[in-house]
Every structure is written in C-alpha cells, then in structure tokens.
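[job 4471] stage=fold_predict status=RUNNING
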Amino acid sequence: MTTQHLAKIGAAAKSLSQVILNGLLPRHCLMCGCGSGTSNLCQGCDKELPRIGHCCLQCGLPLSHDTDRFCGHCLRKPPHWDFAITALAYRFPVNQLVCRFKFGRSLACGQILSRELTGAIQYRHGALPGCIVPVPLHRLRHISRSFNQADLLARQVGKALELPVYGSILQRQRRTRAHSGLDALTRKRNIKGAFACSIPADKRTSFEHVALVDDVMTTGATLAECARTLKRAGAGTVSVWVAARTLEPC
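[job 4471] inference complete, writing structure tokens
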C-alpha cells in the first residue's frame, strides 16, 4: 500500500472519528451557549464578529474608500514594519475571546482567532513570506502563563498556510512592565531594547520577507520594536499579522 493510500485512509478515519465525537459531544457556541454543530461559534455569533475588511496596507486600520491604500497617519508617519494584516476589531466579543485565550488558556478561542487571521491573510491575496515569527514572551512570563499565545497563533496559521515558524530566533532579553494601562509614549520607552535576534546563515533566505504574529495590536509599540530588531538582524520585508487590533492609529 502506498503512502498516498495510507494518508487517504488516515484522513477518512480522522473525519469519521470527528463525526462520531460531534454526535456524542455536540459543541456549544463559546459566546451564547447555543448549539453550534461542528464549530466553536454558532452561525449568528460568527456572522456578528467585527471583521476588518478593506484596510490600510501598513497599519491595518479600516479605510472608507475602496481606492485608498494607506491611511493618512501612515502617509505622514509610516510604521517600522512594511505591511500589516489585521483580522478583527478589538471590541466585544473579540476582546472576550482574546482574554479567554490569553489568560484563561482557552484553546478553542485561540482556534477562532487563528481561523480569522488565516482567512484575512488569504483574503488579501498578497505574496506570502518565507517564514513566520511570533512576538516572544520573557521566559519568566512564559513560565507563569505556561504558554505564549502569539506562538500558538503563529503555529496554527503556519500550519494552515504551510509556512515554517521560528519561535526562538526573536527573543525577549529583558522583562518589561505589562503594557495594560500605559500610554503610547510610556509603552515605547518600556519596550525599547527589550528584544534580541540572530538569524542563522541557513535561514537568511526565509527572512527576506518575514511575518511577525501577535494576538492584539494597540499602540503598536511592541510590534515596532520587534520589527526594528528583525531588520537590524538582517531581515528584509517585515509584515505584521495580528488577530485583533484597536481602531486607533499606532
């Protein structure tokens, strides 16, 4: 029996087991609690997700006119990265999904966010990068949380798009204050010089275009510092892929 036949049999068995599991343990919507079939959200809640459609190519903010490519803020002061793709507006119920994923370790919420981010990337029809890099946590914060939500998002998106994910090349070398409650200027000062990056010689080609993945963009201070660090290490084009963002300019 060939490898291809074995793969088909494995896929069929997995599909059948999923059907059986869904019949025995039907899913319920993570937002309203109603039956949701094989999905984590019911059709109504899924339809109501605040997806970001046509947006600025550099910061991901929604644009009013289909012919526009950049927002006024990016024309005046471009960010430190080159392109951005943002999937959802960071408001209810997205903020609840992010919170439950980030602090409640809800992998189901993470699956929704990664699905939306993957869909937004495919919708843009842009050139895919050579690799994906998640925004890193400091090792002490990683230990306290037990996982890095950006890394999980990156790996799920990478699997869907068949892109390699390098989770250890970009590192947070010092622990910083949590950004919650800090203004934009304080965030920039807090995060400055917090990251280090060394790109191995055999991966240089992959880093000619790299996607930086995070769960949320607020002021963009962390993403900007990561992008600067990657470019100083020799990365070429840096795209930012974010599951959710606040609708304020960075």
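[job 4471] summary: The longest helix spans residues 3-24.
[job 4471] exit 0
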